[in-house]
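Predict both folds.
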Amino acid sequence: MDILKFIGQRLREAREFLGLKQEEAARRLGITREYLSQLETGKRHIPMRLLAKAAELYGRPESWFYGIGDTVGSLQMLLRQTEGAPLSEETKRQLVRFVHFCEEIAHLQKLLNYPKPDFPTYPVTRERLEEQARQAARAERERLGLGDDPAPNLADILEIHGIPVIRLPMTEEVSGAMAYDAGMGGFILVNAQKLPTHQLWTVAHEYGHLLKDREQGFVLPEVVNEVNGSKEDAKRKWAEVFANRFATHLLLPEETVRRLVESTGGKPITTWRLIELRRTFGVSYAALLYRLKELGYLTEREFERWRQEKLMALEQLVFGSPETSIPKNFRISKVLWELALEAAMKGEITLSYAAEVLGITPMEVQDILHELEGATVVGGA
């Protein structure tokens, strides 16, 4: 195999996947179009620094350009269908990164002998969709150990049960996605640019898809609708309805909402009560108000009046902006960090590999491991 031609082919594939012309890619890489053309045809050797820059531009790990870690199975299908979809360059780049992180997590889980989670299957029919969404949410609350408690930290709970939640900055066109592969397990993608309230809803919504639609391999509505055409639109619409109703019952279960609303002894719902309820459940004001109207606590007129109020602005004025509880280094994937550090600590991977996976230096990995080992000793004592 001619390695220069192979790398050149990968450079061209990565560029074309994002829909970039040679002139634009060359400009961003800081080289001439002629030089990039020579690299893509395997006539020139690419310096390591330039390869690193190309990997960042295209959203690919450097090892991919050498043929290491090729995507397989359902995740490969996701990238194939994404390539022809009318998505922005940035969204496509982040979907490539999402697939890469899924593969890294699955690889580390295999190294550490982590079992893949079992997903229950719930019956869903159009005629009984609402009741089945409620029953599925209730069963999942029980299975996840939530009981009737609010779940503003749903992502953490899912990750404890082996379902990674990966947050990446995307454009407005995509809120999230679900990916599933029988050999690797299930994964949830969330747009990190969205507000924490929106991210929470996306986690619940995509989890609904993971339970119902995982045999498709992935769910990204913008891709599915474009590729499959009008015949699939109706099927997609009611699948989206199920995911939304599942999210409603999972995050705002009727019994819990009623218990908290009625705990004031029948007093009218005030601004401060709405703020308190929103902070308890973690959802948006739009979702909370709709649920209160649905359960009969707000009339249509009251619902519309509250919708016009700038409740989040008032909440932020009093309590500050709603901050995510995820530490800065865990923003992409808490599970990825935990797996990489555990694997490095056990000697299953090198410090350099852990550093590449986490996007930090080997020295930083070593420092973290030193602190973790010290904490383990203290905890064991």
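Second protein follows, with its predicted structure tokens after the sequence.
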Amino acid sequence: MVRRLIDALEGAGASVGAYEVRAVREYGKPLHLNPRLVLDTLLRRGVDVVLSPPSLDWDCYGLAILAPTWFGRVAAPMVGFLKGHCFPGGPAVCLATRAARVEYS
């Protein structure tokens, strides 16, 4: 889904940068049954993350699109990223995906 969004934005002439945010301590699968992931997400705990590529220059961007969400909240690795990399005031969007009917959202 993110790849399709990047392609669409670039196709419309936008300059796009994509970064992977990965938890330093990975969560075991299946994710929806992982108690640490559930607690980190529901309690809005930020976890230590690694950013790839490692350098980020917010001045290059006018919009931040963040993915994923877990359990209807910003994912714990993304919370950790946001605590360490504050977006300086531009708009930010959280991309939510779900295997539910459209009426759910």
